[in-house]
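Page 47, continued from p. 46.
Same chain as before, 129 aa.
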Amino acid sequence: MTTFETKQLPEKYDYLAPDGSEIRLLPEMKGDGLSHCTLPRGGISQAVTHKTVEDIWYFIKGKGKVWRKQGGREKVVDVGPGICLTIPTGTHFQFRNTGQEPLRFIIATMPPWPGKDEAVRVKDYWEGA
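Result:
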């Protein structure tokens, strides 16, 4: 049986994601993992794709833009508090902070993040990453 868990969001990040954003780990279950992501003011992530996982992102603070490319379909969306989006497996994506404060969002990853080799670098949509 899986035990229940309670965790306070840590002040210091646990690690830098392969795209360069700050990741603070939250509880994880068998089928998914949860984390808190921060991209500092003026930040631009590196463009990546995931080999085996898919994500749901829910934005809680700041303003930004997210680029996603899946096959021949490509789109840039504005993000901020209350916006939720998906990153299906194999989607190329990159995000940037366009606001005056850190861009913060919650990430649900299914299945849980397997490790640093999961993300594969792809061509940037925005230069400067």
